């Protein structure tokens, strides 16, 4: 199955979810994330501000914002800048995604855990994003633990076609399971 077919299949499945199903799935995913060693040990965490069709990250940011240092990405040309999360400094940015404002960017080397959004994941940790390559470029420069999150139907049985520039995640957490990927990590 090609990436566009997978994107359209997942989009159609997401459109069938009720608000209650979305909220319950987000709670399940973030409960699992909170129990992971990677999360418990990390102080500096890169998360993302969710789009309406993604698991909502807002409650999680509110819950843990005073106990962990969260950072969010901001689109800068073809790359992502990493800035500290502060609810009062958010504004609509590229692609109608709320992004942090300011000039206090953080080096990706300071981030210990990255929560990675995607349209779909496979059992090898390969992911399909929205097609712009922002996260692949970012993930290629870090040795932080990476966790992909999504609805259970976003973890697909078919192999996702991976290109040389695609970067897989270490763990996938869905509302029904947690999958640890065993692959060799690049050294940076």
Q: Quick summary of this structure?
A:
By secondary structure, the chain is of the alpha/beta class. The chain is 25% helix and 22% strand. The chain has helices at 3-15, 19-34, 37-41, 58-64, 134-139, and strands at 44-46, 69-76, 79-84, 90-92, 98-100, 113-116, 120-121, 127-128, 145-149, 171-173, 178-180.
Explain this structure to me?
The structure is a single chain. The protein is of the alpha/beta class and 188 residues long. The protein is built from five helices and eleven strands. The chain has helices at 3-15, 19-34, 37-41, 58-64, 134-139, and strands spanning 44-46, 69-76, 79-84, 90-92, 98-100, 113-116, 120-121, 127-128, 145-149, 171-173, 178-180. The strands form three sheets. The chain has a seven-stranded mixed beta sheet. Strands 4-5 form a two-stranded antiparallel ribbon. It has a two-stranded antiparallel ribbon with strand order 7-8. Strand 10 (171-173) and strand 11 form a beta hairpin. The chain is globular.
Major β-sheet strand ordering? 3-2-1-6-9-10-11
Proportion of strand residues: 15-25%
Structural class: alpha/beta
User: How helix-rich are the residues, as a percent range?
Assistant: 25-40%
Unreliable spans: none
Cα-based radius of gyration, to the nearest Å: 15 Å
Number of strands: 11
Count up the helices. Answer: 5
User: Order of SSEs, N→C?
Assistant: HHHEHEEEEEEEHEEE
Largest sheet: 7 strands, mixed
Shape: globular
- Average pLDDT number: 91
Distance between the termini: 32 Å
């Amino acid at each position: 199955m090609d990436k566009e077919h997978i994107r359209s299949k997942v989009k159609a499945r997401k459109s069938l979810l009720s608000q209650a199903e979305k909220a319950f799935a987000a709670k399940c995913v973030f409960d699992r994330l909170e129990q992971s060693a990677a999360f418990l040990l990390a102080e500096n965490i890169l998360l993302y501000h969710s789009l309406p069709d993604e698991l909502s990250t807002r409650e999680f940011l509110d819950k843990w914002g005073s106990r962990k240092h969260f950072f969010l990405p901001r689109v800068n040309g073809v790359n992502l800048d990493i800035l500290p999360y502060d609810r009062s400094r958010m504004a609509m940015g590229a692609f109608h995604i709320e992004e942090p404002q300011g000039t206090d960017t953080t080096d990706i080397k300071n981030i210990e855990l990255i929560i990675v959004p995607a349209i779909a994941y496979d059992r090898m940790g390969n992911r399909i994003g929205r097609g712009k390559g922002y996260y692949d470029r970012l993930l290629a420069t870090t040795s932080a633990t990476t966790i992909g999150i999504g609805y259970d139907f976003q973890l697909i049985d078919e192999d996702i076609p991976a290109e040389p520039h695609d970067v897989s995640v270490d763990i996938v957490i869905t509302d029904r399971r947690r999958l640890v990927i065993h692959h060799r990590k690049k050294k940076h």
